[in-house]
Amino acid sequence: MVYVKWFFILAVWGLVAAVLHYTLPQHDVVRITDTYETRVDYGENALFWASESPGMATDLQGRDVFFIQSRLTDGRPMIYRNEDTGWGWPPYFKFDSANLQADAADLKSTQEAPRWVVVRHYGWRNELLSIYPNAVHLRLAAGPEERIVPWLNIVILVLLAALVWGVWVRWRRFRRRRLDPVLEEMGDSMADVSDGVAERLARLRRWWKNEPG
Fold it and tell me: Partner of 191 at 20 to 30 A CA spacing, among 4, 10, 53, 180?
């Protein structure tokens, strides 16, 4: 039972960590190589695509999506999708995917004359599932070695940890003051009932032994 309890706890916290890692903003320093728009038909990875842009008709099969091709500072390719999040989840309230695509096209550069760009995005890149992080903001970088301190993520994680700690402390106080006395009383009552049943069974056995044969 202890193993089941710890498996459940680890599974819950693993899920929370995965949601936070997917949702919180991340930053890459890249060189943009190309931009394009293509039709995407949803499949098993539909969960990892944004909802329809506000004001557009809903197509459950798919739609045209902007993409931004780039190279990381170590030369590895990185492709971003560029979709509006609208009023949905995650709460980036992004409505300017067309403008962002124009900015990305304007920031394209070659390997001989690179222009380094900081891309703020959320999500994961997975070739097997064909999922892409969603770019939400672009700006010129100071250089390929620029380091970005994720202050927003730090603040959110600290606040979340404080919230979890506060809820945990209050739950322990509530349990100690309200639940534990009730559970203890219920345990005493069950023990009394069990003792009474045991005593009656003992009397019954003594009567059965003394019953003439």
Answer: 4
